[in-house]
Amino acid sequence: MSRRWALTVLGALVTLFFLAPYSVMLMSSFRTSIDVRTTPPRFIPREWQWDTYTRVLTDERFINWLQTSLGIAIASTILVIIVAIPAAYITARFRFIGRTPFLLLVLVTQMFSPTALVVGLYRQFFELNMINTYAALIVTNAAFNLAFAVWILHGFFSSIPAEVEEAAELDGSSRLQTLWRIMLPLTRPGLVTATIFTFIAAWNEYVVALTLMIDDAKKPLTVGMRAYITGYEQHWDQLFAASVIAVVPVVILFATIEKHLVGGLTAGSVK
């Protein structure tokens, strides 16, 4: 019993530790910009400002940034899933020359940091006349997250007994029908895991977007929010409010598919 209480207290402390920055961000969104800069800092605002979120949500720039981030994240996620499903299925079900080197190559690409490749990416997209385009961000985000999706789906497809496909083929299903009707439903936790991690990575991407996007109206939310803090004006209250709003879609996504996500992360842990 004492051990259970100790674990509960420890878990609560860890939770509070990770929630602390978000609570400060939330409380700071209700301060005035002057109050944010006042020292010593206080957790409770000296003066409550209740219209910060209204001003942010009615800001046309913020709406453009939010729509851009949402569109890029969704498009990148769809592209990753479309490519990762056949790649993972083929490598899991077929033995061919170069299979192992291909999987290792996919794994190696996961080790490269976008920051280290940003100069090369800029040069490449400059040659293709794709600077300041949504397509450049979509392709880049998809490329950086494809390896994770392929590997996790590869593990799910490999864990499904081959007899399941053989039974479907005996019933007259083609390879494509078997993949769509049988294999994909069985790998739903893996699909959900790959989808949510790809979406979050694309939603939070900053360095590549900062480098490739020039037009303020086309910048995603992570880059656009920098406009609230400049050398001439500092709207700290709006910056914190925009940051809180940016967290909301991810929280809703996690809450909606939590069960599938946990199943995907723990798959294979119990035989």
Structural class assignment: mainly alpha
H/E element string? Answer: HHHHHHHHHHHHHH
CATH architecture of the largest domain: Orthogonal Bundle
Computed over alpha carbons, the radius of gyration is 23 Å
How many helices?
Answer: 14
The CATH class assignment of the largest domain is: Mainly Alpha
Terminal Cα separation, in Å?
Answer: 29 Å
**What is the number of independent domains?**
2
The coarse silhouette is globular
Weakly predicted, low-confidence segments: none
Helical coverage, percent range: over 70%
Q: Can you identify the CATH superfamily of the largest domain?
A: MetI-like
Remind me, CATH topology of the largest domain? MetI-like fold
Mean pLDDT across all residues, rounded? Answer: 85
Compile the SSE list and pairings.
Elements: H1 2-28, H2 33-37, H3 52-57, H4 60-93, H5 99-109, H6 114-127, H7 134-159, H8 162-170, H9 175-186, H10 188-204, H11 207-212, H12 221-224, H13 236-256, H14 258-265
Helix pairs in contact: 1-13, 4-7, 4-10, 5-7, 7-10, 8-9, 10-14
